[in-house]
Design a protein that fits this description.
262 residues
Length: 262
C-alpha cells in the first residue's frame, strides 16, 4: 500500500473524525496526549514550524497560539478543507496544504522545527517520512512527534478487567508481526452510542514497527535522539475524565524528540 492509497482511507474517515473530535470525543488527545506533548515542547514563539499530518488542525492551532509561524499539511483533502475553514473563520496565520509526509513539498532547510501528532505510525514508510522531515529542517532544528505506543498497540490486544469491570492489565501479542496496511476498524469509544451509530467506524491501515525499528529510523535519517516520554494520566486528570484510567495500566502513547545536528 502506498501513501496515496492510505490517504484515500483517511479522506473517507475525515468527515466523521472531524465531527466527533470537534464534539470533544477524542478524550485521549484532548486531555492526555496533547497536553503532555505541549508541556514537553521547547519554546516555538517566533519560529517557522511544519506540522506533518495535521488532520483537521486541532494541534496546529495550538502551535500557532504559542506564537509559531506554522505551515501544515495532510494527505487527506477533506481534513485540509476543514482546517482551512476554521482558519478562515478564526485566522491564526496558518498555511495549510495537501501533501504527503513521504514527499514534503518544501525546499531543504526551510523550517526551524517540525511536529507530527499521531501520524507517522499511519504512513507506509515512516523511515522515508523521517528523512523528509530531516531534509526540510534547518541545522539545529528539531522534530517532535507522537505515535501509538509500539509495545501496546500490537496485532493482538485485549484489555483485562477485574470483577468490578476495572482495567488492570493489557494482553498483547504479535509485537514482531508487521502489518502491511491491513485496515483496522475502530471508533472514539467516548462518544455516546447514538453518536457512534450515526457514523461509519474509522478504517485505518496499520503499519506497526517495533521500538528498535523506530529508533533505528530516527538515527538513520540523521537525527540525534534528544528524549522520549510516555504520557501517564495524573489523579487530577482522571478525577475530571475517568475514561483516562485505562491509560494508567500501560502507556498508550510514545513521544520522541530528535534534532538535526548543526
Amino acid at each position: 500500500m502506498n501513501d496515496q492509497e492510505v490517504g484515500e482511507f483517511w479522506n473517507r474517515n475525515a468527515p466523521a473524525w472531524t465531527t466527533l473530535a470537534r464534539a470533544g470525543y477524542d478524550v485521549y488527545r484532548n486531555h492526555l496526549n496533547t497536553p503532555a506533548f505541549f508541556a514537553w515542547l521547547p519554546p516555538v514563539a517566533g519560529l517557522a514550524g511544519l506540522d506533518i499530518g495535521c488532520g483537521e488542525g486541532y494541534n496546529t492551532r495550538l502551535l500557532a497560539q504559542q506564537g509559531a509561524h506554522v505551515t501544515a499539511l495532510d494527505i487527506a483533502p477533506v481534513f485540509v478543507a476543514a482546517a482551512q475553514q476554521t482558519e478562515d473563520a478564526e485566522p491564526l496565520g496558518i498555511r495549510y496544504l495537501v501533501g504527503s509526509a513521504a514527499a514534503l513539498p518544501f525546499a531543504a532547510e526551510t523550517f526551524d522545527f517540525a511536529t507530527s501528532f499521531m501520524c507517522l505510525m499511519d504512513v507506509p514508510d515512516p523511515a522515508l517520512a523521517l528523512r523528509e522531515a530531516f531534509r526540510v529542517l534547518r541545522p539545529g532544528g528539531f522534530l517532535q512527534f507522537s505515535i501509538s505506543h509500539p509495545c501496546f498497540t500490537t496485532p493482538h490486544r485485549r484489555n483485562l478487567r477485574d470483577a468490578q469491570g476495572r482495567p488492570y492489565a493489557v494482553e498483547v501479542g504479535g509485537y514482531f508481526d508487521y502489518q502491511h496496511g491491513q485496515p483496522e476498524e475502530w471508533m472514539f469509544h467516548a462518544a455516546p452510542p447514538q453518536e457512534q451509530a450515526r457514523h461509519t467506524p474509522f478504517r485505518v491501515p496499520v503499519f506497526n514497527l517495533t521500538i528498535s525499528q523506530w529508533v533505528a529510523a530516527v538515527v538513520a535519517a540523521g537525527f540525534v535522539l534528544e528524549g522520549v516520554q510516555e504520557p501517564c494520566p495524573t489523579e487530577e486528570q482522571m478525577a475530571v475524565h475517568p475514561f483516562l484510567r485505562k491509560a494508567l495500566v500501560v502507556p498508550y502513547f510514545l513521544h520522541l524528540r530528535c534534532r538535526k545536528p548543526l
